[in-house]
């Protein structure tokens, strides 16, 4: 039963609702934006009201046709943000917290082969930036926050 306090602490930390439940925010993005080379573009990612940063980290991914998604930028707070390897400084995130917007800003958009891509925003709770390992008896279970709350108590035996 030594793990019960740990699990309870994890559940409390991961909870974002008054009743202790955990929910996933649904993000919205405009379907497409057309710009000319050299222009600045702001790609909006809207998080529903009731979800707050820095409880959540927003990240942006870029996917070019025929390629795997590439990490572009993450933003949690002004002192906790950064761009992916090889991503130029003209990519930044400009939050508008009063409107729950987490905008990816691309300054001086480059020609088609450079910046023409699909851009995705995603979010995860701070408590699941990294997966958590929970141990009962000799069993090891890899778990994310949402899965952790669905675990049933294990009776030592």
Automatic annotation (TrEMBL):
InterPro entries: Ig-like_dom (IPR007110), Ig-like_dom_sf (IPR036179), Ig-like_fold (IPR013783), Ig_sub (IPR003599), Ig_V-set (IPR013106), IgV_Light_Chain (IPR050150). Residues 25-123 form the Ig-like domain. The keyword Protein transport does not apply. It holds the Pfam family V-set. This is Ig-like domain-containing protein. Residues 1-17 form the signal peptide. Keywords: Signal. It comes from the Eukaryota.
């Amino acid at each position: 039963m030594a793990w019960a306090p740990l699990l309870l602490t994890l559940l409390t930390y991961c909870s974002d609702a008054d009743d202790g439940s955990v929910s996933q925010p649904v993000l919205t993005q405009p379907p497409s934006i057309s710009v000319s080379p050299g222009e600045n573009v702001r790609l909006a990612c809207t998080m529903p009201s009731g979800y707050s940063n820095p409880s959540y980290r927003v990240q942006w991914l870029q996917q070019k046709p025929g390629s795997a998604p590439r990490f572009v930028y993450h933003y949690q707070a002004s002192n906790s943000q950064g761009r992916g390897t090889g991503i130029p400084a003209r990519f930044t995130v400009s939050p508008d917290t009063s409107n729950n917007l987490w905008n990816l800003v691309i300054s001086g958009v480059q020609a088609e082969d450079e910046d023409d891509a699909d851009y995705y925003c995603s979010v995860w709770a701070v408590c699941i930036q990294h997966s958590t390992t929970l141990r009962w008896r000799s069993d090891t279970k890899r778990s994310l926050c949402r899965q952790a709350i669905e675990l049933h108590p294990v009776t030592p035996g």
